Amino acid sequence: MSRLRSLSPGTDEVLGEYEISGAEAVLAAVARARAAATWWSGRSFRERRDHLLGWKREIAGRPDELAGLIRGETGKPQGDALLEVMLAVEHLDWAARNAGKVLRRRRVSSGLLAADQGAALEYRPLGVIGVIGPWNYPVYTPLGSISYALAAGNAVVFKPSEYTPGVGAWLADAWSRAVPEHPVLQAVLGAGETGAALCASGVDKVAFTGSAATARKVMASCAQTLTPIVVEGGGKDAMIVAADADLDAAARAAIFGGFGNAGQTCAGVERIYVEREVHTAFLERVIALAKQVTPGSGEAAAYGPMTTPEQIEVVRAHVKDALAAGGRAVVGGPEAVREPFIDPVVLADVPAGSRAVTEETFGPVLVVNPVADLREAVRLANATSYGLAASIFSADQRAAVSLARQLRTGAVSINGVLGFAGIPALPFGGVGDSGFGRVHGADGLREFSRAQSVTWRRFAAPIDLMRLDRNPAALERARRLFRLRHAR
Q1: Annotated catalytic residue, options 73, 90, 162, 266
Q2: How many CA atoms lie within 13 A of 314 on its CB side?
Q3: In 301-448, where do the E strands start and end?
Q4: Is the pTM of this model over 0.85?
């Protein structure tokens, strides 16, 4: 039987070995989930809430254990891993407590033409959801789909990244301890072949997080069975710094958004557009802060190693391309890439066509370019195929909100970065190569539901037009009422 080895990205130490789920194992898991979904969807919202809160307590009661597993498999500092667990639990709690309010049956107005009909809308579970998770945030990101799918009444088959199988197995084991009755949540482990098998398994929807290139492959597979999909893709997220901004606060946020998790954050900061009159002052602040940031494997390190070797080569190529195109390395440079770690890199005056500006770098690299005004900043921020998130720093909140409306992104933070990540009620998702559909919030609950409309006859229609032997006099009365209502 093939085995999947979990390795520490910093040391290549073997952290664990897991049985790979082949196509037959995936199909068996989906079959079990199908039976479990029947039981789970038959529970009331209150009963599902109680089970979900029991799972929450399993996670929240052992946060250091889970964070340690995240740290081992991704290399991120323990504090960052613990913060990830806490954020994920906040979303799980919100989904559990709010599903009934969002998805419950509600009466709707029938309108004049159908006054004889009562009408109601409710949201029903889809059935079985396949979730394909990433390695950069192996708890927070997939739970953004898993928690909301479960709260909506679905069973879930979860394929974690092949780089973080231990985290995925831990989450499924925690569920089985909290809800031992049925396998409502299961994990299947493996690489791309396991994900492909899940897409072809007959699940009712797939939630995928990863690159746009892989998302296209997942969509092509799902298209064979008309399986719907929600995609959270990558990002090339921009920060806009206005001349009136608090430059110290903006610089601190840029460092956090650009270098946190070794820059391996799809909604972090990769490009910064600064009004020219403060560009030098802002850049000086960023340089000073960046020089204080040191990666490593110890607890004092600001961030850890790159989780995958492939991404190291992407970062190296982007930095070299930016410099070859005429950009300046004001912190770091090609020498900053010292596998498996990459020191902070800050690039300035990078041409707009450079790969470091147009493609997702997904590493600790910041591009800081001057702009003539905020109009140009918005134009350049939108000049990408991605559209996940952005941030704006300005003393004028009204002006910043106006700028936010002009940005082609799913989320915007004003005078901060990643502010939306900790607010469960806000939906999250992007446009373009950043994906489509939404997780989190009420939209995230509805994403894993199907709307069902129900009508019933309340009384005999005074003007009955819904029949083949329609009375001409009734039609004429209806026509007159129609004109009185709509033609004046």
Answers
A1: 266
A2: 18
A3: 328-331, 337-338, 341-342, 345-348, 365-371, 386-387, 389-393, 411-414, 431-432, 435-436
A4: yes
Q: What is the mean pLDDT of residues 446-450?
A: 98
**19 is written with which tokens?**
């049985």
SS (H, E, C) 339-359: CCEECCEEEECCCCCCHHHHC
**H or E stretch at 237:** none
> Which of 73, 90, 232, 359 is the catalytic position?
232
Q: CB of 263 within 8 A of CB of 360?
A: no
Q: What is the pLDDT of residues 26-80, one digit of tens each?
A: 999 999 999 999 999 999 999 999 999 999 999 999 999 999 999 999 999 999 9
Those residues with Cβ within 8 angstroms of residue 486's Cβ, 6 or more apart along the chain or in another chain = none
Question: Are the CB atoms for 268 and 137 separated by under 8 Å?
Answer: no
Fold of 238-424: Aldehyde Dehydrogenase; Chain A, domain 2 (3.40.309)
199 is catalytic: no
Residue-wise pLDDT tens digits, 296-346: 998 899 999 999 999 999 999 999 999 999 999 999 999 999 999 999 999
Superfamily of domain 3-233+439-450: Aldehyde Dehydrogenase; Chain A, domain 1 (3.40.605.10)
